[in-house]
Amino acid sequence: MPGSANGSNGATKAMGVLTVGGLVVVTAYTVALGSNGWLWFGWVVLGLLTLAMVATQNN
């Protein structure tokens, strides 16, 4: 249905913005306070979830 595809596009776009924002936050934290492996691990998981959403999106 066209309506559900638009909703999916919005969710994918929001997930992409969250992923990029997360990268900025994790990088700033690393620069200011030092590296934290769990933060980077969480960002990688978020990135993989975003890629999975993009890959499974219906066009």
From TrEMBL:
Keyword list, A-Z: Membrane, Transmembrane, Transmembrane helix
TM ranges: 12-32, 38-56
Protein name: Integral membrane protein
